[in-house]
Structures are given as C-alpha cells and as structure tokens.
Amino acid sequence: MKIGCKIIRLTSVDSTNNYVANLIEKGEIKSGTVIMADDQNEGKGQRGAEWHVKPRENLTFSVYYSDVNLSVDRVFVLTQLVSVAIVDLLKKFGIVSSIKWPNDIYVGQQKIAGVLIENQIAGTLISNTIIGVGLNINQQEFNNFEATSLFLSSGVSRKPVDVLYSFIESFNLLSQEFNGNELIELRKLYMSHLYRLNVSAKYRDKDGDFEGVIKDVLDKGELLINKGNEMKTYTLKEIQFIS
Ligand code: BTN
C-alpha cells in the first residue's frame, strides 16, 4: 500500500480525517492521497477526544487508502504499520520513542504523536481506511505536561512538511517489506517498541485501579494484562493507563 502519490496541503480545515471522508463520499479522492493541514480547528482524537495543537507548528495529516483487502480480523495490522513507521521516522531524527497501546507514540513519559484510524467496512473486509496522524513538531508549550514535540526532544526545529515526507518514506518502506507473509515480523517490531511491556504499572478498568503487567497485544488488537492471578484482555474503551 504505497502512499503519497498525491499530497494536498490545506491552510485550514476542520479535520483532515473529515476532509478525506467528504472526498470519499464525492468519489473525488485517489487511493494513497495524503491531505495535510497547517491548521486544524476541529481535530479529532481517540475515544471521542479533541486534538488541539498550535497552528503551523505541528504536523496534522490524513492518508486515504482504498482496496485495503484486509479482513476485519486483521485490522490491527494498520495500527502496527503506522505506529512502527512513526517510531522509525523519529529514529531518523535521533529520537527514541515507544508505542503506548494501541497507537500513541511516546518519548519517555510524554506523548509526541497520536493516530486516529477510521475504517469503512464492506462485509468482512476493510474497504477504505483513513489514517489520521498528529505529530508535534515545533511546539514548545503544551497545556498538558505529558506532551512533547520533536523540537523539545531533539533541540532541532523542522518544517512539518519535511517530516511528512519522511513519514511517507518510512511508511512505504515498511508496507513494502510487510506485505503478505511477513506480518509476523511486523507484529514483532510493534511489540519490541511497546511501552510498559512486562513492566508492573497502574491501570484502571471497570472494577477500579490495579497494578498489572502488559504481557501481549493480540492479533485483533486487544491488550493482554496480567492482573493479580488472571490474564485479562481489554479493548480501548475498557482500560486506562494511570501514570
Ligand atoms: C489521539 O491520540 O487521540 C489521536 C489523535 C489524532 C489526530 C490526527 S490530526 C490529523 C487527523 N485529523 C483528525 O481530526 N485527527 C487526526
């Protein structure tokens, strides 16, 4: 799944994910197109949250891909691909990062990037996917102390569009490498970067706070945590990380 055949740069938009969804509806977008916005005034995050960053200082973009031909059971492969591509691109800039399940990218204890994937499903297959990425680039102050940027992590400021080109390169290389049977290797890579893997830490589920250890991420994307004497699996809405 090669991306970046066409790149559209917008000065301002509500949400690049919504912009792509509108173009899909009108049949006016080609697979692999990337839409980037200098300013996004209604950016969407995971779990219905908002994604607010300073205009022109950060990278916000969405990738459209059609004919994904992935069965819904294997949808987590997309998450793995994007997360590992971001970790790879940060490595190019000298930044070591990790993947906080399912697809937040962290430098130490601070978030540098977030991903929102919205899929359209036809029967048992993913027909279209919109991969939205927000990556903090030059922003120096955040309301949230748990956030960082490329500048704060490396001391170097960069043009958001240049970072986008690096992402496209990393993503295309990875997806070329991991087509078909190589998916086990992609999974291994994802796991090798997983934040808090095998580390005892605090979590909150429907029964309250507890100390647990992340043991695995299953093929369908659920998180496997050792809680007391049991192994429990969680979907995104069922578990919270407590710092
Ligand atoms: C998260 O961590 O909660 C996910 C954040 C995803 C933000 C990106 S910015 C570009 C794209 N357009 C959106 O409205 N959201 C995603």
Q: How large a portion of the residues is in β-strands, by DSSP E?
A: 35-45%
Number of beta-strand segments: 12
What is the mean pLDDT?
A: 95
Structural class: alpha+beta
Q: Give the number of domains.
A: 2
Radius of gyration: 18 Å
CATH architectural designation of the largest domain:
2-Layer Sandwich
Low-confidence stretches: none
Question: What share of the residues lie within helices?
Answer: 25-40%
Which ligands occur here? biotin
Terminal CA distance: 36 Å
Strand order of the largest sheet: 1-2-3-7-6-5-4
CATH topology label of the largest domain:
BirA Bifunctional Protein, domain 2
Briefly, what CATH class of the largest domain?
Answer: Alpha Beta
The SSE order reads: EHEEHEEEEHHHEEEEE
Q: Figure out the total of helices.
A: 5
The outline comes out as globular
- Mind summarizing the main beta sheet? 7 strands, mixed
CATH-wise, what's the superfamily of the largest domain?
A: Bira Bifunctional Protein, Domain 2
What do these coordinates show?
The chain has two domains: 6-192, 2-Layer Sandwich (BirA Bifunctional Protein, domain 2); 200-242, SH3 type barrels (Roll), CATH 2.30.30. α2 (76-92) crosses α4 (160-177) and α2 packs across α5. The radius of gyration is 18 Å and the shape is globular. It has helices at 16-26, 76-92, 150-154, 160-177, 183-192, and strands at residues 7-13, 34-40, 59-71, 98-100, 104-107, 110-122, 125-135, 200-205, 208-217, 223-227, 230-234, 240-242. It has a seven-stranded mixed beta sheet with strand order 1-2-3-7-6-5-4. Strands 11-10-9-8-12 form a five-stranded antiparallel beta sheet, with no helix packed on it. β5 (104-107) and β6 (110-122) form a beta hairpin. It contains five helices and twelve strands. The mean pLDDT is 95. With 243 residues, it is α+β, with helices and mostly antiparallel strands. 25% of the residues lie in helices and 36% in strands. It starts with 6 loop residues before the first strand and ends with a strand. The structure holds biotin (BTN). Residues 15-17, 40, 43-46, 49, 51, 60-62, 104, 114-116, 132-134 line the site of biotin.
